[in-house]
Structure formats: structure tokens, C-alpha cells
Automatic annotation (TrEMBL), chain A:
Enzyme Commission (EC) number: 3.6.3.36
Family to which the UniProt record says this protein belongs: Belongs to the ABC transporter superfamily.
UniProt GO MF annotations: ATP binding; ATP hydrolysis activity
Native source species: Thiorhodococcus drewsii AZ1
UniProt KW keywords: ATP-binding, Hydrolase, Nucleotide-binding, Transport
Protein's name according to its UniProt entry: Taurine-transporting ATPase
SMART domains reported in the protein's UniProt record: AAA (SM00382)
UniProt xrefs under PROSITE patterns: ABC_TRANSPORTER_1, ABC_TRANSPORTER_2
Keyword ATP-binding recorded: yes
Domain ABC transporter: 12-241
Pfam families assigned to the protein according to its UniProt record, in alphabetical order: ABC_tran
SUPFAM superfamilies the record matches: P-loop containing nucleoside triphosphate hydrolases (SSF52540)
Keyword ATP-binding included in the entry's annotation: yes
TrEMBL record, chain B:
Keyword Hydrolase: no
Organism phylogeny: Bacteria, Pseudomonadati, Pseudomonadota, Gammaproteobacteria, Chromatiales
Protein location: Cell membrane
Name of the protein: ABC-type transporter, integral membrane subunit
Annotated transmembrane regions: 12-30, 67-86, 98-120, 166-191, 222-241
GO cellular component: plasma membrane
Organism: Thiorhodococcus drewsii AZ1
Keyword check for Transport: yes
Domain of life: Bacteria
Keywords: Cell membrane, Membrane, Transmembrane, Transmembrane helix, Transport
Annotated GO biological process: transmembrane transport
Length: 256, 253
């Protein structure tokens, strides 16, 4: 199954953003953030979004998630005429766990009550190394643990589309690497489509099937780099490292 | 450095302070030798007599029922309106003048007008008390709703928690400190106003009894009834509201 070329999979969502503006806080004039931005995400595809800081990558995720409807263009979902995706997991830049709930309750909250989620939550907590902390309130966990919990929560809903906004930033290198491996494992189980924002080109090379490069002011799609490392080779560091060097030189020419 | 004695025994200090108040009262009563300032024991005697053989419990019950009803109405109506005003700019613009007006009408005016327009009955009494409290709750909960964290709202929205889960697990916990402040300040306000309402337009309750004793210039009766009511309200504050607040804040570090 995994040998099937990705181009043959049907698109899960087509994103066509003609224009997205924000009012400038000082002059109150609209400032264009995203313009002429179009791409499709296919089922089970992993796509990275890179671009200069503040160029509107987070805004792009919010538009796709339906959190912000105030833009020109459309986000069209396959199999449905609704503007919202069928099932969505979102890993925000900050963990956004509810501090008044325990870790377990935080994850159970996003699940359907009828689904008897206890075992499923236990599995995820074990995978993310949080089994011993399930009954602690979320604000008692370290930032790294909260990030892992936020990942567990997003995986728990078994999303068809998983949006992640710099999910591994500000973590120590071993933890980040461990979480990337975890992501690959979990992807292998349920095969969601993943769109994630990152600043780390090495991370994009390791995880993504292709990388979308955005310009800034306004953000347009300036390049789409296929990574082309087979899924089974992702954990092989020499393979990713070689490809990373190639992509980096292309990347540097793009943003020179 | 060893901590000073009072810091080690805050409870002892409180008790000593309360005791000194009673001693001061006793000393004042001895000095005055007048039935305008009875001794603490005389007040206690009367209160006990009224409790066991007299109508104290009945009047206390009537007042407490009004306090509870008005409190619940004010918290529900004021909380809902205030919360919505904090979220919806249009509603805020529409209701704000009403709120400012209501906030600035003296309690007595509301009570008198309510009795004149809607008659001297129980419903009017309770509504009049609640009306005095509602703007206060609205202001506190509007402030609370304005501080709701948009990050959590986005989280609830993207995981499609639905309105029931969002309200119960995301919104209300954030509002809880504001609800607690509104509840405590509200109870203090209501139990002061309820007596005025009873004095003006009811023929039972602590306020009614105070009115009766006032006409007789019976200070012992006034003190006996008001002190027993104060004790009950303090009991509610310490035994009910404060433990509830602590329970709700347990998760905080």
C-alpha cells in the first residue's frame, strides 16, 4: 500500500486563498498577509510549510482549520460541501491544555463520550511517555510534557487532517527528536494527512513528503520542494542528512 | 529570626480581637446604665428566648428565603447578561446605558417604586432585592468574559467541543474567580438590602421585627434580632462560600 505513488491519492482538501488581510493596528489600513496561495493536500500526505518569521504561516493554518473565515478564497474539502474538515487535530504553538483539568481529562475532553476512551487515552499516554502523570493537573507538567500532551490530544481524535504549528520548537534536541519519531510511528498507524509549520529545514526533510516555501509581505507560494525520501527511510539519519544538504542549498538560493 | 507570637497564632489573635469587642461592649453598658445600650448577656438572653419560645426562627427563615431567591435570580440574570455583554460588542452597547442607570439608582428608590408599582407582595420584594444586585453582577461578569483566553476558544473550536462542553469545561472555569467575587460581594449587598425591603413592605422577616422593635425603642430586641441574622450570614460565608471557593481553586499552583 505504501508503495502507491502519492499523486494517485485523491485530494483531501484544496486551499485557494486569493487574499487575506489584517487591519494594521496603527494606521487601521488593511495589510495583505496572504495572497494567491493555492495548493492541495492529498490523503495521508505529510507537508511542511516554511517561510520567514511572521509571514503568515500560523494564519494559513487558522484559515484551513476554519478558525478564521474572514478571507477571500476557499478551502474545499473532499466528500463534503461543508467548509469544515470532517475530523481535525490541531497542535498549537503553545500547548493550550486546560490547567483546571487533569492530563487525562484534557485528552478525554476532545473525544466522543460514547467512545469509551479510557484505553485509547492510556495507549497514547504510554506512547508519549506520560503514563505516570495522567492524574496531574496540566499546569503541574513541564513545558516539554505539556507539548507531548498536546500531541497526544491531537492524535487522540484520530484526525483526518492534523495541523501542527511548530510543534517541536523550544524543546531540547533529544526530546524533539523522540517526538518526531513518535509522529512517524503514529502516522504509520492511522495515516492522517499532516500539514505542519516549521523553521527547521532538517525537521521538514525528515518528516515531510514535500515542502511549501512561502515568501513574506504578502506570503505567496514561491516553491514546492518534493523531498522524496521513502517513509521507511525516514529514521535513517544519513539518508535524511544527505537530502537535507541538497534542500538547504536550494532553500538558500530561494531566500537569497 | 523566630516569627512573632501573633503570626504563629493567627486564630488566637482573631479570637482575642473578637473577645475584646465584647468586653468593650460590656464595659460601655456598665458605664451607660441605660436601656439604650443593654449588656451582651441581656441581648443573648433575649435572642435565646426568642429562638426557643419566640418567633425568631420563623422570621429568620422568611428573610433567608428571600436572600437565597434574590441571590440566585441576580447571579443567573446578571451573570448571563454580563457574560454576554463581555463577548458581544453590540449587546454591550445596547445594555450599557441601562446598566449605568440601574447601578446609580439608590436601592431605596428601586424598592419604593417596585412596591408602589407592583404591590406589597413577596414576588415584588424578591425582585426588588435582586434588581439592586443584578448590575453589580453584570459588571463583574462582563469584566470576566472580556478576559476569556482566545487561545482556549480556538482550541475548543478546532476540536469541535460543541457549546455544552465549551461552556462547562472551557468558559465557566475561566469565569469562576469572577463568579466567586460576584457571589461574595453580592451576598453582602443582598443581606443589607433585604432588611430595608422587609422594613418597608413585609410583615415577617428580620427587617419587619427590627421595625417593630424600633417603634418600641427596644434596643435589646434590635440587637438580638440583628446579631442572630449576622451570625447566620457569617456562617454561610465561612462554612459555604469560602470552602466552595477553595475547592474551585484547588488546581491553582
Amino acid at each position: 500500500m505504501s508503495s502507491e505513488p502519492l499523486t494517485q491519492c485523491p485530494p483531501l482538501v484544496e486551499v485557494e486563498i486569493a487574499r487575506k488581510c489584517f487591519a494594521d493596528p496603527e494606521s487601521h489600513r488593511p495589510r495583505i498577509v496572504l495572497e494567491d496561495l493555492g495548493f492541495a493536500l492529498r490523503a495521508a500526505e505529510v507537508v511542511a510549510v516554511v517561510g520567514p518569521s511572521g509571514c503568515g504561516k500560523t494564519t494559513l493554518l487558522q484559515l484551513i482549520a476554519g478558525l478564521d473565515r474572514d478571507f477571500e478564497g476557499r478551502v474545499a474539502w473532499a466528500d463534503t460541501r461543508s467548509e469544515q474538515p470532517p475530523r481535525l487535530g490541531y497542535v498549537f504553538q503553545n500547548p493550550r491544555l486546560l490547567p483546571w483539568l487533569t492530563l487525562r481529562k484534557n485528552i478525554e475532553l476532545v473525544l466522543n463520550e460514547r467512545a469509551h476512551p479510557r484505553r485509547q487515552v492510556d495507549d497514547l499516554l504510554a506512547l508519549t511517555g506520560l503514563s505516570g502523570f495522567a492524574e496531574l493537573h496540566a499546569n503541574r507538567l513541564s513545558v516539554g510534557m505539556q507539548r507531548r500532551a498536546a500531541l497526544a490530544r491531537a492524535f487522540a481524535v484520530q484526525p483526518q487532517l492534523l495541523l501542527m504549528d511548530e510543534p517541536f520548537v523550544s524543546l531540547d534536541a533529544p526530546t524533539a527528536q523522540q517526538l518526531r519519531r513518535l509522529l512517524i510511528q503514529i502516522w504509520d498507524r492511522t495515516r492522517p494527512t499532516i500539514l505542519f509549520v516549521t523553521h527547521d529545514l532538517r525537521e521538514a526533510t525528515m518528516l515531510a513528503d514535500r515542502i511549501l516555501c512561502l515568501s513574506s509581505n504578502p506570503a505567496r507560494l514561491i516553491a514546492e520542494i518534493p523531498v522524496g525520501i521513502p517513509r521507511t527511510e525516514r529514521l535513517n539519519e544519513t539518508a535524511t542528512e544527505r537530502r537535507h544538504t541538497e534542500i538547504r542549498s536550494r532553500f538558500e538560493r530561494l531566500y537569497a | 529570626m523566630t516569627p512573632s507570637l501573633p503570626a504563629q497564632h493567627p486564630l488566637a489573635l482573631r479570637l482575642a480581637s473578637a473577645l475584646s469587642l465584647i468586653l468593650l461592649w460590656q464595659w460601655g453598658a456598665w458605664q451607660a446604665q441605660s436601656n439604650l445600650l443593654p449588656t451582651p448577656s441581656a441581648v443573648l438572653d433575649l435572642a435565646w428566648g426568642e429562638l426557643v419560645h419566640g418567633p425568631l426562627l420563623e422570621h429568620l427563615g422568611a428573610t433567608l428565603r428571600r436572600v437565597v431567591l434574590a441571590f440566585c435570580i441576580a447571579m443567573l440574570v446578571g451573570g448571563t447578561l454580563g457574560g454576554l455583554m463581555g463577548r458581544l460588542k453590540t449587546l454591550d452597547a445596547i445594555l450599557d446605558p441601562w446598566l449605568v442607570l440601574l447601578l446609580n439608582i439608590p436601592a431605596l428608590v428601586i424598592i419604593i417604586l417596585a412596591f408602589v408599582w407592583f404591590g406589597l407582595n413577596e414576588t415584588t420584594a424578591v425582585i426588588a432585592i435582586a434588581l439592586n444586585k443584578i448590575p453589580n453582577v453584570m459588571i463583574i461578569l462582563r469584566e470576566g468574559a472580556r478576559t476569556l483566553d482566545p487561545d482556549f476558544r480556538e482550541m475548543a473550536q478546532s476540536f469541535r467541543l460543541g457549546w455544552r462542553k465549551t461552556l462547562l469545561y472551557v468558559t465557566l472555569p475561566q469565569l469562576l474567580p469572577y463568579i466567586a467575587v460576584a457571589a461574595r460581594s453580592g451576598l453582602a449587598l443582598i443581606w443589607k438590602i433585604v432588611l430595608v425591603v422587609e422594613l418597608l413592605g413585609r410583615n415577617d422577616g428580620i427587617g419587619f421585627m427590627l421595625h417593630t422593635y424600633f417603634q418600641l425603642f427596644d434596643v435589646t430586641g434590635i440587637l438580638a434580632y440583628s446579631l442572630s441574622f449576622i451570625l447566620v450570614m457569617l456562617g454561610i460565608e465561612y462554612a459555604l462560600l469560602q470552602p466552595l471557593e477553595r475547592l474551585a481553586n484547588r488546581w491553582r499552583r
